[in-house]
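Problem: given the chain below (428 residues), write out its structure.
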Amino acid sequence: MRRYVNVKPNWFCAVILLALVVNLSWMVAFPNKPHSDAAYYSKLGQSLAQQGTYEIADVTDPTIWPGGALSFRPLTDKAYVPPGYPLFLAAVYKVFGYNNLAPKLANVAMYLAAIGLLYRIALHLMPKRWSLAATTIVAFFPGLIAFTSLVMTEMLTTFLLMLALLLVLQFDRARVAASRAAILGVIIGYATLVRPVMIVLLPALLVYELWAFRRFKVVILRWSVVGFVAVLIILSWSARNLMVLGEFVPISTNGGVLFYVGNRDGASGTEDEPAFPFHLYPDEVERNRAGYRMGIAFIRQHPLEFLALLPKKVYHLYACDCGAVWFSFSPEAQLPPRASAMKWLSQTWYLVVVLLAACGVFFKEWRGFLKQHGPLFFLIAGFWTAFHMPFGGEGRFHVPLIPLLALFAGSSLCLLYTWVLHMFHRSP
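Solution.
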């Protein structure tokens, strides 16, 4: 392993600076205005910043749904989507005013911070050369770079996931560390309000620590603190929903809609939101209940069809990594030829990284790394995948997991490079 440690710190700084240049260049080359989900988030953030209300202030604003995109979704709902990202946008708009540039620059900052956190995580787990390789893969990952110019949840979710993992890896095995556990609880609780899938970090990381540390009393006490604080954060929003809606809604009312469109006649395994009969359920609470009720009825009546949908959902969750490129263009605009080129580059980069990660199995050092740290990543990926199975898969839902994939790909790339040098009787 010693042959991998001679990496100078300024190399990492160069990677960060180049990543910043690439991200800003992407924004200049592919300018866009928020539309669809991005417009919905942006308008909710504006409403929170300016009126202090979690609903669209002007339901007639034509910029929200250009070209009719997502025009089926009611704009008067008060808890349709999770509040974490609109709350973040509200803070950005409070400081910098309502504009399209500020949240994108915030995304770039979170992306660069996530790269730095990944480097720190990697240094906990592997030699420096491997760490730099993994960090470089993420720093120039086209699918991630494209998301920095979109007012979407992916960059914030990725940053919070990296931050949570670093805190876990820095835990003292012998102490509960209640204050650090409470901080982790705040991070997981807020992250769940950004993307509910982040709640899987509680069971995934708990099981990992039980397996890795073997100090059951310390681990159980620590994660009792983490879980209590995380649930407290989530329940604070649930209490708001109870007061506003008159019903207990843990986070948002879109769960029933997404559950139904993922479990119905004609379901494809993706989140085909327009398939829900919104016009029959103007009340969002009743719509949420109806979605779960109809989805459960379908599963009971067609169990084999439900099982057949599961691999399709996994496929749509992980197969494509070029959605951010298409989303960078307004639905009213004709896609330029360079968009197709960027889609190809994004998907090719993703597939190469997946292939590199898989190639590591041929190296003894990589198999040792997998045996020691693999359970951490497999638990997160497993719980992450299981969370999406009742609903549906979309390529952007796997984006926060890409840095974890890069850890395996980076180590494999270094080992492959060393193997090639040895083939020519050279020292790395």
